[in-house]
């Protein structure tokens, strides 16, 4: 009866009380009064949502469980990049161990799918990729992890990195990453041609960090849109952060992004312009969310909780009405699944039984109260309860 | 031995381990190896901070413990104001009961001082003021609450409100409130003259809600500065929200605010321009913070936790270095005490023993981790532990 259970008296997305039958890890039926097969979970009216989707984090660089890191880093992006690369070994930020710690913490908060950018650079080679792949494989039964080979320190500007990116993808990283084609790489055409060439060669999707503000970011975005369309990669490209979409006057890009099938990832960053979630979705753009790096040399904030991230996205986008707050949670669940192309996702018959139960009167209450009382189910098995994952972190 | 205890092995503000002796509710000594008088609390290296200061909330309007309120309110400020006033009785938002619920929840999170704006309007008269005063008096031994008589629905635009404000102050509200002199009141001179006249008549400080953006808000701010200086009210005026200070080109006001001794209250609102905390403090302006309304008809967010508020202020102001994150917590403690004129505040000999103990390696970790493991002491007595206040909420 592996992955077979009955969730009795749960409320999918806060709706009416019903039962969810799970057989062999998939949702086999939804309706009141279903007959129990396997283990029975008494929902007692708890809300059921599909597994949360952490669509953008950096599993390889958190410092969970390490001595507190006193952040004295300079204010520029390049300060943070250089500081991290130069101190990673000294600070014992072992990607295998740290990624397992964070992934299991995320799982305990209810994330059943994680996309992690993982550093690839000439100082550390594939140390990160190999470590996170180890975690991905070890935790395969409890959480789905995919890796983005990410040239954090630059790709063309640091000779040898492109070859390492190629090797990371050959080794099993699932997605091609990229980074600020103008601001960091100084060669937007060269950078994006190289990123999309890797994607074509390996048949992989793309996820590009685009911090560039205003007109510069909008220019890079246009180049990404052009390549996505030219190569027929609609539905396989994500632009992360995309602060330029929060600048005035860039609304013309929304329809172009929708037409090119490019998804946007936001953290709801409070101190930067951000992509406007409601307007983008209204234009037909898929929007997903992530916690980005947590507790690392970049920033001390974050706990890996995608319900808290929904709250932060809601606060940043001034989502107050119940239907608006629910949008924030949809972004942190369905939006991520759609952006990452997760198959069989959702609370429908035939979907994988990746389900989180939380007590709340409404979806909006679930988001704002962020109760730690969570039951997390992955393909029909309980993988975390009350903040404790079924596998102990290292 | 009332209010007499020894806190052994604590770390004030994350510094070296020491002891804090409390006698008759006040800090009597700080140093290693003090002799125990009264009850001994084993700090085990926990960080000690002074009681958190909730410098801006609305105790009278939360819906804690009531059925979930489905928010379908319109987007304008006036939509929220009217919706609340018209539905308050129907929704059973009883100010006495609700203020006690919120105040005890805040206390459990570590707030030992609360400034609450309380609605005064012609529909409800002094219902709010009387209810919150009842809570203030009932909880006098565990938390200090002060009331701002707040003309939420307008003062001059709603005849009869000014007289009610006068009555609220006569009845015991400690502070004179005001609201958007241009945008809501349509008569900035008239409104501010009336507010400051009440302050003069009753000998009370002033705390004005100023949501007005950009140039309009800056104009209202100038009028507030002029009156504060002319009446010698330096150190007795707070401007809350002050979104206009986050607009470009308003930096010239910083020095004027410092010179006029006007404090600024921020929530670190993620979806609005906000007063820049670091720049204001550098200019000599006192900055405090508050949660504003929580779980009410305006917005579902918020839990009354001023440590979480410090995190939100930190995120909004992009405070990442340890010394910067500490600033966010200083704003939520000392800043509030200074803005509200709290006497004997802090972790010094002679101060009231209002102390919160939390396990953390550093102040920055305390802010970002927001552990619920908190011991809250008010004038030398334990008033909350692990999220449970010593007095049960109604």
What attributes does this structure have?
394 residues, Urease, subunit C, domain 1, nine-stranded mixed sheet, globular
Describe this structure in words.
- 2 copies of one chain form a homodimer.
- Chain A is of the alpha/beta class and 394 residues long.
- Chain A folds into 2 domains: 5-50 and 346-384, Roll (Urease, subunit C, domain 1), CATH 2.30.40.10; 52-340, Alpha-Beta Barrel (TIM Barrel), CATH 3.20.20.140.
- The first copy, chain A, has 11 helices and 17 strands.
- In chain A, strands 1, 2, 3, 4, 5, 14, 15, 16 and 17 form a 9-stranded mixed sheet that branches.
- In chain A, α8 links the parallel β12 and β13 (287-289).
- In chain A, α6 (214-230) packs parallel to α7.
- The longest helix of chain A has 19 residues, at 322-340.
- Chain A starts with a strand and ends in a 5-residue tail after the last strand.
- The interface between A and B is large, with 36 and 36 residues.
Helix-strand layout with pairing:
The structure is a homodimer of 394-residue chains.
Chain A (H helix, E strand, L loop, with lengths): L4 E8 L5 E6 L2 E6 L7 E4 L4 E4 L1 E6 L19 H11 L7 H15 L1 E9 L7 H12 L5 E7 L10 H11 L3 E5 L8 H15 L3 E5 L3 H17 L6 E5 L10 H9 L1 E5 L10 H6 L4 E3 L16 H11 L5 H19 L14 E4 L4 H7 L5 E4 L2 E5 L2 E2 L5
Parallel strand pairs in A: 1-4, 1-5, 6-7, 7-8, 8-9, 9-10, 10-11, 11-12, 12-13
Antiparallel strand pairs in A: 1-2, 2-3, 5-14, 14-15, 15-16, 16-17
């Amino acid at each position: 009866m592996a992955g077979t259970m009955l969730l009795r008296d749960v409320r999918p997305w806060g709706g009416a009380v019903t039962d969810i039958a799970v057989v062999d890890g998939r949702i086999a039926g939804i309706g009141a009064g279903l007959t129990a097969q396997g283990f029975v979970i008494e929902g007692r009216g708890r809300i059921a949502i599909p597994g949360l989707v952490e669509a953008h984090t950096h599993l390889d660089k958190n410092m969970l469980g390490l001595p507190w890191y006193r952040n004295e880093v300079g204010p520029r992006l390049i300060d943070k990049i250089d500081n991290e690369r130069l101190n990673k070994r000294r600070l014992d930020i072992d990607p295998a161990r740290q990624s397992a710690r964070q992934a299991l913490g995320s799982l305990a908060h209810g994330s059943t799918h994680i996309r992690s950018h993982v550093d690839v650079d000439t100082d550390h080679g594939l140390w990160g990729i190999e470590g996170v792949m180890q975690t991905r494989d070890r935790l395969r039964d409890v959480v789905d992890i995919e890796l983005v080979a990410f040239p954090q320190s630059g790709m063309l500007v640091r000779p040898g990195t492109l070859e390492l990116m190629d090797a990371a993808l050959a080794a099993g990283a699932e997605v091609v990453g990229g980074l600020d084609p103008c601001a960091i790489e100084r060669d937007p055409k060269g950078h994006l041609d190289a990123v999309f060439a890797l994607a074509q060669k390996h048949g992989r999707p793309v996820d590009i960090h685009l911090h560039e503000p205003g007109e510069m970011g909008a220019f890079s975005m246009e180049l990404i849109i052009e390549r996505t369309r030219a190569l027929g990669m609609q539905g396989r490209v994500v632009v992360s952060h995309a602060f330029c979409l929060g600048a005035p006057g860039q609304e013309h890009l929304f329809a172009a992004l929708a037409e090119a099938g490019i998804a946007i990832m936001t953290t709801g960053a409070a101190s930067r312009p951000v992509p406007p979630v409601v307007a983008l979705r209204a234009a037909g753009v898929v929007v997903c969310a992530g916690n980005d790096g947590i507790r690392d040399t970049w920033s001390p904030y974050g706990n890996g909780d995608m319900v808290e991230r929904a709250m932060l996205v809601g606060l940043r986008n001034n989502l107050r009405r119940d239907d608006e707050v629910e949008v924030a949670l949809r972004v942190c669940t369905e939006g991520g699944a759609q952006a990452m192309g997760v198959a069989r996702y959702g609370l429908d018959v035939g979907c994988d039984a990746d389900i989180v139960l939380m007590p709340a009167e409404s979806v909006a209450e679930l988001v704002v109260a962020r109760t730690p009382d969570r039951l997390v189910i992955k393909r029909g098995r309980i993988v975390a309860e009350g903040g404790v994952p079924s596998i102990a972190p290292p």
